[in-house]
Amino acid sequence: MNRSLTAGCMLVTIGLLTACANDDADDRGTSRSSPSPSSLTTKAGEIPPAPKQPEGIKNPVRFDPCFEIDDAMVTSAGFDPKTRTRSDLVTGDVVVIGCSFERPKNAGGEVTGDVIVRSKNTPIAEAATSSHHTVINRDPVDGRPAVLFTDDAFPNFCNAAISSTDGVLEIVLSAIPGSTPAPSSCDQVRGVAEKFATVLGDK
What we know:
The protein is built from 5 helices and 8 strands. The protein is α+β, with helices and mostly antiparallel strands. It has one domain (3-14, 63-200). Strands 1, 2, 3, 4, 5, 6, 7 and 8 form an 8-stranded antiparallel beta sheet that branches. A hairpin with a 4-residue loop joins strand 7 and strand 8. The longest helix is centred in the first third of the chain and has 13 residues, at 3-15.
């Protein structure tokens, strides 16, 4: 499955969800700084801005992984920062702001996986209780409450929802079968989530 289809499929799933309001929104107004454009392989002007969120939305998303996650972190997590691509969705009160990255190609020129890192304004309880999810682990990630799960509609993906001030930082990982055997997405997702969760800081 190619990366554009991966991102598209997962965004369709989000579009079908009904958000639960997150009442823990006291500190959502905290100002946040993004990394300087020089820290990104892709120049800031070449990355489209996040989509506009509805005026008056109760729980806006303020953390934008496309600009908050620098190239060094993407590389350390095992992905190619040059493949940085927006992966956003705004539908009603549900807001998803994120970026996708591919694994570096192997010796045979194959892309063996990709990841979507996205900030969502839905509570972590939704990931744990959705009838469409199968929870595989609830251990904290980087000291934060977290839920690792699969989505019944996309069993080849593995997801980690990590509590944040926006709601959750969600990691959506796919492992694409290639000529060289590789661990499944669920065998890899915790390690990838631990890497990306560190960017949250106090967010």
